[in-house]
Amino acid sequence: MSTSRDPDRLVLFTDAVVAIAITLLVLPLVDLVPEVKADGGEAVSVISEHRQEIFTFLLSFVVIANFWLGHHRLFEHVRAYTTAMMRLNLLWLLTIVVLPFPTEIIGSFDTSRFTAGLYAGTILALSICQSAITWMVYGHKELERPDNPVSKREVTGSLLLTGLTLVAFLLAAFVPGVGFYALLLLLLSPVVMRVWSRRSTDQPRTHTDAQQ
Fold first, then answer.
1. Which contacts qualify for 16-20: CB closer than 8 Å, 24 or more apart?
2. Cα separations (Å) of 52 from 24, 29, 47, 176?
3. How many CB atoms lie within 10 A of CB 27?
4. Alpha-carbon span 52 to 140, nearest angstrom
């Protein structure tokens, strides 16, 4: 267990790395401006002729932002950390800082099973790391705040997202013609969670529950 028992330093370091990674995403777009100028192109062509690069930038921005938000919500439950959590968090950060690399690839090359699989695989690794951290904190009295523990719903949501990402990766990497459409599966995660929560709420209470 960390002697400080305070995760603030870990969170601040994580936020700084994520900020750098998300900033790196826009640098290829910035580099396009002098390239287009040198080739004699017009200003509007920076956008009109590079829609794919702009789309991949926005896509990866949304991916990183959503995983960072999930990481932020998770660490609201954390009151201390271990060496194992630090290492797992570093692995999570590795997947974050690597993401601009496949982003540049899919922005520069035509869509193929390799490019779509590489991108979806990176997101899968990121999702696995986040689920692993969530599982590590869940029910760990030395790690989570007693007044704000990780809920079963949060663990289920994290595992569900990882499962959907795995399916998306398999479709993108091995099924011809699917490409990045496989990532649309990730949009199902909040829908499935709402249905699951509604069914859990609508379940009849048992005799034991009623006595409690």
1. 17/93, 17/96, 17/97, 18/64, 18/68, 18/71, 18/93, 18/96, 20/97
2. 17, 11, 9, 20
3. 12
4. 44
In whole angstroms, what separates CA 105 from the centre of its chain?
19
Q: What distance lies between CA 201 and its chain's CA centroid?
A: 28
Rounded average pLDDT over 54-75: 94
The pLDDT tens digits for 73-112 are: 999 999 988 889 999 999 999 999 999 999 999 988 999 9
Residues making up the chain, counted from first to last: 212
Give the position of tokens 């991949």.
56
What Å distances lie between residue 33 and 22, 50, 53, CA to CA?
Answer: 19, 11, 13
The residues, ordered by sequence, that sit 6+ positions from 74 with a Cβ below 8 Å of its Cβ are: 130, 133, 134, 137, 150, 154
DSSP-H helix ranges across the chain: 8-24, 27-38, 45-48, 51-75, 83-98, 100-108, 113-137, 152-174, 188-202, 207-211
CA distance 87 to 28: 30
Side chain identity at residue 69, one-letter code: L
* Residue type at position 135: W
Task: Tell me the C-alpha distance between 21 and 136, whole Å.
Answer: 25
